[in-house]
Design a protein that fits this description.
Helix content is 21%, strand content 36%. With 206 residues, it is of the alpha+beta class. The strands form 5 sheets. The chain has a 6-stranded antiparallel β-sheet, with no helix packed on it. A 4-stranded antiparallel β-sheet has the order 2-5-1-6. Strand 7 and strand 8 form a beta hairpin. It is globular, with a radius of gyration of 21 Å.
């Protein structure tokens, strides 16, 4: 990239054009859509091909028909593995066995915010995280402490626990993160207006 910019400078190309050249070389996180139950294999293939990837996992306990119980590590987002690439490298990703497509709109890839990926990566192992139905409505709150500080989602209750449902709109999937009431604050629903945070401490269990 530096060589390209230097060449443009020597040729007298304006700064605005040089900025466009730099942006062409930007890398972002994208969602790779995979065959069912192939997420781990795809992530392994990415590593072998030196493609930076991230496969978030969560722990769950399953009981089988023979009454045996087992702890499992499963993908947090079924059928998705995240990759960090220059958009022009999409062919390298699509050539990996098990990858069906890269999420986008038409021929334009849809990048995921670096902030969301890094917050998710930091929070794994520190908080109880599990898949959740995709939601876009409800009481919105903002997490104000911990590794997911600044992220906004929908407040829900599961038995005696409070959880914030965080949506990744690009892939239309959500996760539920267990949180403490003291770590939450209302999120603005409109400019200049902050909705009151529900008094969930006194509500009966559902």
């Amino acid at each position: 990239m530096q060589n390209a910019l230097a060449a443009r400078q020597e040729a007298g190309v304006p700064n605005s054009d040089r900025l466009a050249v730099a942006q062409d070389f930007c890398v972002h996180w994208f969602a790779a859509y995979t065959n069912s139950h192939h997420e781990k294999r795809v992530a392994s293939n990415f590593a072998e091909r030196q493609i930076e990837s991230f496969l978030p996992m969560y722990s769950t306990r399953r009981r089988w028909r023979n009454r045996c119980e087992m702890n499992l590590e499963l993908p947090l987002f079924t059928n998705y593995v995240f990759v960090r690439i220059d958009p022009r490298e999409r062919v390298r990703v699509l050539e990996v066995p098990g990858v069906l497509s890269l999420v986008g709109f038409g021929r334009t890839l849809a990048p995921l915010p670096d902030f969301e990926i890094e917050a998710l990566r930091t929070a794994l192992g520190l908080r109880k995280i599990a898949p959740h139905s995709y939601l876009v409505i409800g009481d919105r709150v903002r997490i104000k402490a911990g590794p997911m500080n600044g992220m906004e989602g929908v407040l829900v209750r599961k038995k005696n626990d409070l959880r914030v449902v965080l949506a990744l709109d690009v892939i239309m999937q959500s996760i539920a993160v267990e949180v403490d009431a003291d770590d939450l604050e209302p999120a603005s629903k409109s400019a200049g207006h902050v909705a009151p945070l529900p008094d969930f401490r006194g509500q009966p269990n559902r």
